[in-house]
Design a protein that fits this description.
With 586 residues, the protein is α+β, with helices and mostly antiparallel strands. It is built from 13 helices and 22 strands. Strand 11 and strand 12 form a beta hairpin. The longest helix is centred in the first third of the chain and has 24 residues.
Length: 586
């Protein structure tokens, strides 16, 4: 007992000699605010007797308080002497008498030292939103890639051209029947109706000519459209009208074509009528070449006619007259032109080869030739471009056209140029009006738009994506080739411009340079130009149109000029003159 008392006295003596430096700086611990919040786990067994002590009141663990530089006081309502004690809270905040201190003194902004360790660090809402947006876009792109992988078969647009009564619609209707797109029962119905109308041999064409006017007169008025499919590819048939009064409709169809089938009637007298001056065989061949169609299949039709009888001499006569003209038009006889004898009415040479009926021809049939063509280069990942060829209203605004570049999906937002109206894809209709989730470059589709009235949509308008709008202009420079002109052409000449699916009245405001056979430009502007001459001209349109330079986007950079029912000239756009002014005005 004496030893213990001596130890106590010794500690008391030493403690009494200690002094406290009041002027010392208070210890302020610093914390990393960006560090993740500490979330204590509930222990199954208490680690120490202090931690296991039950809390007062609500049973919540009391906050641990460390006071440095001042005496502790139980009355929290009194102002705390300087230096302030540093408080570290672990766990949930205490609910005892803390609000009283707030009432006694004005609240100061919390410093990092006073912040609760377990509360998460605040994040920037803008950064968080941008991160979420990027994540959504990446997820949508992944979904798009999965959806676009469904387009396993290549899609090819085939236009049937030629003089009136050459058998274009009959050939197209028979293709639909032979490929199973039109069943036998429906075709028998067409045959019965055609017989009642006194048009026995027209029943095959009624699969494409659905208009009553077209069926009554036997003439295609609008560019018909149908779909068929083989084991290798999917096809869209564009049945162009053959009458000269409906050439503008044919031009709109040619702008959507990848391959052209020039249907020639081998019947005595019919070929000569279509090929001579005034016939549409020549003009159609020029127009599809101007539209960018590189491959021309010449279908020598009606070889089964009694006046022909699969005669090789007649076949050679037709091909010998066509080849020089097509070569002059720009087609290479060795690589771009394919001749096929056939009968569109009987189906010989269409799906199956002609066989014994034509022993001198052993080449492939029409469908075999189409399947064997080289693939067309597509700009699936390019900027979206859909020139509108048709529009109507059916429980909403519906437009149709060929996707020249890019790809679309349901709920995608687009812009209608040149009006710059924002719209959204509601539905996509592909072959036989079947609904699709996506469509890619080369597809000929119908699109139901949301958020735009059909009165704002016109043929020749272009649907584009929001990030890559197309150019709008009223004036451009172009290289012009005069095909047919009765008189000389000077500045101020007026005509009708056909570019992609748009039709607009234009004026040749200036003749800039004449171009010779070596593609050399004259320094001085020519006073006039005439047939078979080339010239760089400046063209003004009455309204803004959506076009591109030929070298940037050929599908929107080539055009034809027509006047008085004839194709006067063809050309390609070299320079857009008034783009910025028009865009600012719009």
């Amino acid at each position: 007992m004496a030893n213990q008392q001596d130890n106590v006295d010794d500690v008391t003596k030493k403690t009494g000699e200690m002094s406290l430096n009041v002027g010392a700086k208070a210890f302020v611990p610093k914390f990393n605010v960006k560090a993740p919040a500490f979330a204590p786990r509930k222990a199954t067994q208490p680690a120490a007797p202090v931690a296991a002590a039950p809390a007062e009141g609500a049973g919540v663990a009391k906050p641990m308080t460390i006071s440095i530089g001042g005496s502790s006081s139980n009355n929290t309502t009194e102002a705390v002497a300087v230096p302030k004690p540093a408080t570290i809270s672990i766990g949930e905040a205490s609910t005892s008498q803390a609000p009283a201190a707030t009432d006694a003194a004005p609240a100061a902004e919390p410093t990092p030292a006073e912040s609760s360790v377990d509360s998460p660090a605040p994040e920037n809402p803008a950064i968080e939103a941008a991160t979420n947006e990027v994540a959504v876009e990446e997820e949508e792109e992944e979904d798009d890639d999965e959806l676009f992988n469904e387009h396993t078969k290549e899609h090819t647009n085939v236009i049937f051209i030629g003089h009136v009564d050459a058998g274009k619609s009959t050939l197209g209707g028979n293709i639909l029947f032979l490929t199973g797109m039109v069943d036998k029962r429906t075709m028998e119905k067409y045959e019965r109706e055609a017989k009642e109308a006194g048009r026995d041999s027209w029943y095959l064409s009624w699969a494409l000519d659905t208009n009553q006017e077209e069926r009554a007169k036997g003439k295609t008025v609008e560019c018909g459209r149908a779909f068929f499919e083989t084991d290798k590819r999917r096809y869209t048939i564009l049945d162009a009208p053959g009458h000269k009064n409906f050439v503008p409709s044919m031009v709109g169809g040619a702008a959507q074509a990848d391959v052209a089938v020039l249907v020639i009637s081998a019947r005595r007298g019919e070929f000569e009528t279509g090929f001579e001056r005034g016939g549409q065989t020549r003009e159609h061949a020029v127009l599809v070449k101007t539209a960018g169609v590189r491959t021309l299949i010449v279908a020598i039709n009606k070889m089964d006619d009694p006046t022909v009888g699969w005669d090789k001499a007649r076949y050679d006569e037709v091909t010998s007259k066509l080849t020089p003209f097509l070569k002059k038009t720009g087609y290479s006889p060795k690589t771009d032109i394919i001749y096929i004898p056939m009968s569109g009415y009987t189906g010989a040479g269409v799906k199956d080869r002609v066989g014994s009926a034509c022993s001198w021809y052993t080449g492939p049939s029409l469908l075999e030739t189409l399947d064997g063509l080289q693939s067309v280069e597509r700009k699936t990942n390019g900027p979206l471009r859909i020139p509108i060829s048709e529009k109507y209203r059916d429980m909403g605004t519906i437009v149709s056209g060929k996707i020249e570049s890019g790809r679309i999906r349901i709920n995608q937002k687009m812009m209608l140029m040149p009006e710059k109206h924002i719209c959204e894809v509601s539905n996509i209709y592909g072959a036989n009006e079947a609904e699709e989730k996506t469509a890619i470059s080369g597809d000929n589709v119908r699109i139901k738009l949301r958020g735009i009235d059909d009165g704002l949509v016109q043929n020749g308008h272009v649907l584009v994506d929001l990030k890559h709008p197309c150019h709008i202009t009223r004036e451009f420079d172009a290289l012009l080739i005069i095909r047919e002109a009765k008189n000389i052409i000077t500045s101020g000449y007026k005509s009708v411009l056909h570019v992609h699916t748009a039709t607009e009245e234009v004026i040749l405001s200036k003749l800039l340079h004449k171009v010779n056979a070596k593609n050399q430009r004259s320094r001085a502007p020519p006073p006039f130009i005439k047939q078979n001459e080339k010239c760089i001209v400046r063209i003004q349109t009455t309204k803004p149109i959506c076009v591109e330079r030929f070298e940037d986007f050929p599908q929107l950079g080539r055009f034809t000029l027509r006047d008085e029912g004839k194709t006067i000239a063809v050309g390609k756009i070299l320079k857009l003159v008034e783009t910025n002014t028009v865009n600012a005005a719009n």
